[in-house]
Amino acid sequence: MIQVQDKTEIFLLRHAASIASQHIPEADWPLSPAGVQQAQHLATALQPLQIDAVLVSPYARAKATVEPFAQTAGLSVQVIAELRERKLIESWHPQRDDWLALLQRAWADFSFALPDCESSYDCQQRMCQCLAKLAADHRGQTLLICSHGNAIALYLNSLESSFGFEAWAAMQNPDIFWITYEAGRPFWHKLFKLSDVTV
Predict the structure, then answer these.
(1) DSSP per residue, 53-122
(2) Is 159 inside a domain boundary?
(3) How many Å apart are CA 119 and CA 107, to the nearest integer?
(4) Could you tell me if residue 95 is inside a domain?
(5) Which of 8, 73, 183, 198 could form a Cys-Cys staple with 45, CB 3.0–4.6 A?
(6) Which residues constitute the domain of residue 159?
(7) What is the signed CA dihedral for 114, 129, 56, 119, rounded to 10 degrees?
(8) Does position 192 have pLDDT exceeding 80, yes or no?
């Protein structure tokens, strides 16, 4: 009897650099010129990972980050709503200077959320459930999953409690994290860096 490999490799990618704008919804923010170059570089840099499937947040900057690679690799891009960024504030504008303090508060108190926004706990649970399901649905495959800084950081916090606000602040655009799911349990290869696969 042939046994199916009960292991899924996930490369969790933070989107490339983007342009924040008060004139368009956050979900539609585009990549910056530097971000476009980063996405083009990823098209080549990610090839050694032998990706089987590309799954992405519905936000424009996440899709634009992976599309050059997907085209190069001949893969379709599947949009997963649960990979969206955490909603910290109702709407963003440059004059709002309290968002960083709000984010620090949200990291200090996982139950805190402004009205109609998402707590750290809720975002973390969403990401954990989403990645576990994707790993289960794609056993034996290697996945490229593109999401956002806060959502990814909160997921990583579920694997390593010391990964907090300061670790989020140190993340780069783009940044990549290697997670192996085996028998439904995630293992984070903490020493892996994007530079390990860049050419």
Answers:
(1) EEEE-SSHHHHHHHHHHHHHHT--EEE-GGGSPP--SS---TT---HHHHHHHHHH-TT---TTS--HHH
(2) yes
(3) 9
(4) no
(5) 198
(6) 11-17+27-84+100-196
(7) 10
(8) yes
pLDDT category at 92 given cuts 50, 70, 90 is: low
pTM of the model: 0.93
Rounded to 5, what percent of the chain is helix, strand, coil?
40, 20, 40
Measured between alpha carbons, how far is 153 from 26 in angstroms, rounded to an integer?
A: 19
The string over 18-32, giving b where at least 16 C-beta atoms fall within 10 Å of a residue's C-beta and e elsewhere, is beeeeeeebeebebb
C-beta atoms surrounding 195 within 10 Å = 8
pLDDT class of 149 with cuts at 50, 70, 90: very high
Assigned domain for 1 exists: no
Indicate whether 16 pLDDT > 60: yes
Cα Dmax for the chain: 63
Q: How far, in Å, CA of 147 to CA of 151, rounded?
A: 7
**pLDDT confidence bin for 12, thresholds 50/70/90:** very high
Q: Which tens digits make up the pLDDT trace of 20-55?
A: 888 888 999 999 999 999 999 999 999 999 999 999
Query: Total domain count for the chain?
Result: 1
Q: Which CATH number does the domain housing residue 51 bear?
A: 3.40.50.1240
With respect to residue 175, please indicate whether it lies within any of the assigned structural domains. yes
